[in-house]
Amino acid sequence: MSRAIARAGHREVDDLLDAVLGDAERRAAAHGPGYVLVWREIHRSVRGGKRFRSGLVLGAHAALGAPRPQAAVAVAAAFELLHTAFLVHDDLIDGDTVRRGEPNLAETARRDALAAGRDAAAAERWSLAAAVLAGDLALAQAHRLVGSVDAPTPVRRALVDLLDETLHVSAGGELEDTAAGLGLITPSLDHAVRIAESKTAMYSFRAPLRAGALLAGADPDLVAELDAQGRLLGRAFQLVDDLLGVFAPESEIGKSNLSDLREGKRTPLMLHASSTPAWDEVADRLGRGDLDDLSAARVRRALARCSAPVLVQHAVERDLDRVRERSATLPPALAEVVAGVGLQIAESLCSVVGHIDAARRQDAGPRAAAQEATRWRAG
Length: 379
Prior knowledge:
With 379 residues, the chain is an all-alpha fold. It contains 17 helices and 2 strands.
């Protein structure tokens, strides 16, 4: 897909989202300022995205002839709403207050309640309610866009089924991820990889690529091949994202780089690390809600100096190599779309490898190390 086509498609997606959410915000006024705030924050959250998932829908559809451009825009916009809903709920589950470097929806609602004179407990309950309902509303709008798409009935039904499958798989992956972080399950390495596939690969890669192909009338074998390549891309993306969540600065990832460590997420990175001597320095700190910056720096340094990040890096590289091999079987324009995604993931991997190298070279210094050790013995 050319850059000009991509820009035009993104503008149309933005225009449709502005129209849908602007209308919802106007209708919300009848239910009070709190409801208007929720819709306004949904709109703000949608505007802040990179249009990655909608780009995959539009890119796959354009690469296969673009027979239904308006329908593709509607489905692409639905995936942006789906992404927003998952982010709002994910922040709520993780207890995060920042998204893309700014207060997220729940935190904005909490601050609004405090500014109105509510106490901390009431403001917290209000923020939780706002986030739950906002995510639900965004999901409903995504369903509405897909269910009313201007396409033949069999295509529309296939898209609705795809959206249902996407929600089913992604929610299951998120629940398992949360259970692992809380110690309710102890996943094996293979299980942790499957969780990563479920919570990210399905809605960010597999489903958008399949949706674009379905709209273009692609044959089932091609749709299945795109699904397989999307699975590999999504798995690689999530593995890189796990590394970024631990090693990258907040200014780069747009949210706290302590939250994954405080949650104690049992990602492949941590599972690899658990079989190395570095685990002695990591285990007692991982999953502690009071983990501070100094302690987190020591965890990062211990992880960076063991084999775990390199093993994750190699897994990402293997998945990207497989995508490069398999994409040769795709129509050239579609192969170009897939290759572009793989390149973005590879660039992110290079970036995080630099952060890992920096953490490996870090020296906390004897005085800081002694202070930190005393604090943890006392705690």
